[in-house]
């Protein structure tokens, strides 16, 4: 009888328990980092090719660059930095039980600010088309539309990701796996922000 009482009780398999404050760790699922590094590598190759071609025709690139509206680029930089900050705050809220109610509000705020980037970019493109500037105008504008167009596609994808994160944040309880998915989506949005921080000076400011 004593042996039965003192014998270790079998451990039961349980699903992921709701997560409390997290210890330092690599955010997101491992697979998201493969996607991020793949995207960053693709853009890096385009950046290098752009700089190489710019070195071959500096006058053409400089004259064409003067036709860009750097105000639009600067505003969009602030827009994405603000949206990225809201995502950081939303992620921290998701990681803390007592702050989790703020996560949906912060996420939808990040979405709204990110959507402003798209609106400004559409206005910028419209201004260029009205002025007769298209990807076929010259080599500089070909790279301008390719780089900003690829980035805009990533912004639109990022807004879809933020929508999924908002739906996830609205759930009454979250497992560690779900929080990892939220962190992975946040990392994708930060990558979109990082890419613009490189594209803006590269196209609008570098002389």
UniProtKB/TrEMBL annotation:
InterPro entries from the UniProt entry: Cyt_c/ubiquinol_Oxase_su3, Cyt_c_oxidase-like_su3, Cyt_c_oxidase_su3-like_sf, Cyt_c_oxidase_su3_a-hlx
A GO biological process held by the record: aerobic electron transport chain
Membrane topology recorded in Swiss-Prot or TrEMBL: Multi-pass membrane protein
GO cellular component: plasma membrane
Domain Heme-copper oxidase subunit III family profile positions: 31-207
Subcellular location: Cell membrane; Membrane
Entry's family note: Belongs to the cytochrome c oxidase subunit 3 family.
Name by which UniProt lists this protein: Probable cytochrome c oxidase subunit 3
